[in-house]
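Re: your question about NAD-dependent epimerase/dehydratase domain-containing protein

S., sorry for the slow reply, the queue was backed up all week. Below is exactly what I fed in.
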Amino acid sequence: MKIFITGASGFVGINLLEYLKSSHELKTLIVRYQPDQTFEINADAVIHLAGKAHDLKKVSHQHDYYEANFELTRQLFDAFLLSDTKVFIFMSTVKAVADKVDEILTEDIIPNPKTHYGIAKYQAEQYILSKELPEGKRVYILRPCMIHGLGNKGNLNLLYQLVARGLPWPLGAFENKRSFLSIENLCFVIKELIESIEIPSGIYNVADDESLSTNELVALLGQSLGKRNKILRVSTSLIQKIARLGDKLKLPLNSERLQKLTENYVVSNQKIKKAIGKELPISAREGLLTTFDSFK
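Result:
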């Protein structure tokens, strides 16, 4: 099968190329939004990974998100509809639904994105869903949670650096649960969607089976490093006061970072697992340990 992949130089793209190279003919597409541009697609499937990721440093302009995540997706999807290509996979995000989750996130929850990143991804989803699919075509919108794996440089790496220094973890009093997604499980899902004509088109959350607390992550990091890290249960009210002080003094711990470290964000993967009819290849803990080992 001939597959076009956009965003192949990113974290997901690099891993996906390695995962699929032995079973499919792959071609990478370097794409960037330009007004009124058109694409010619000559492949069996398109995997659209390219886009603008959430900017934690907050230096991006809001129109960048809409051009890269909505307008570019619209152009590619229009080209797909006019082509003989059978499969279109769009990499969206759980942030197209919600920034905060008070219950388990399923595909049935009504989206209410809060950031320009999430809104632009949701607009792209809505555009795709608004079009009538010609017979024989399949379209999948994937909403992954936090993806990790070889080459990942995100928040898990920062947490790893803290634990590697032997510093105590001061947020032990916060109880939370978060879903994660191993890059191997994501690549497995994408391969199944490409190859199985029985999987219906639609929106699918993608996450590992098990959710973990940040305290469990710290303990798992210690296991990877062969260390026993001390977890301190400092009063949550005191930590929150320190975080508010950090907002004013620009300390490493501020309110936004505290939220990210201690919030609940559990994502259901039941719909995609039922559609595929197979178990994911690795457990959440196995995938995280593999990621942690790659940091060494």
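The radius of gyration is 20 Å. Residues 2-151+179-208+267-281 form a domain with the Rossmann fold fold (CATH 3.40.50.720).

Happy to talk it through on Thursday.
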